[in-house]
User: What shape does this take?
Amino acid sequence: MKIFFPQWQGSGTGKDIKIGAKTIKAFLNDPEILSIPLSKKKLEKKHYINAHEALVEQLSSFRQILLQHKPKKLHTIGGDCGLEIIPVSYLSSIYNNLGVIWFDAHADINLPKDSSSSNFHGMPLRTLLGEGNSTLRNLMFSELKPNQIHYLGLRDIDSAEQEKIVKEGIYAPLTMNVAHLTDRLKKNRVKYLYIHFDVDCLDPGSFDKSYFKIANGLTISETEACIRHLKSKFKIVGTSILESTAATEEDLGPIANIVKLLYNG
Assistant: This one.
């Protein structure tokens, strides 16, 4: 199943994310893509989360679509990282021990009360672990275990997030080592993968059309190679492409192959 969900409210003010999602949708030009409407609720802060009510309405719509269609695979064009609580929890509920590959400069594992921004796109993994806001947790289909999470490109981490990562022994290497990652996944008997791809995992020198630009990221070539390797060794049952601000297909050009790799197959 192919989903277009340009949610931006989880990022606070990142309307450019909505534009970026539309660019990816236009680039893929697939008539089977199903669109999820965005809420018109006021972007009020509740429970330490900006736009809480709008997010609940939108994510509820996503949940209902999955309940209706019951897909075996999901490819999501977004949108901010907060949307991930729905597809990841859904696929984890139907695939035992789903491995989650989190390509991202940020850990996205804050509790609402620990977040300096109050933006939900910094909280989805903590929510998926069964912590944080109860209303958003109740929309999920399942919870993750810490050993299901595998970070790649991580380099901008809040202190509370670092504490959680260390405490739970979450896979978060300083540099990407595909062989080491593969060994870790196989030792944990992972057969199925979900690939979360926030474009800010990439170094701005390789691709600068990201909502955040964080130095010392992954190169496009090594990222392509990693995704190809993972696709050759595991069954990819879900992917996302998130937080791009590319306004034209020319802007998107440097990562066109990555988009195709994630979306096709």
Observations:
- The chain has one domain: 2-263.
- The chain is about 35% helix and 15% strand.
- The beta strands are 2-5, 34-35, 74-78, 99-103, 149-152, 192-198, 235-242.
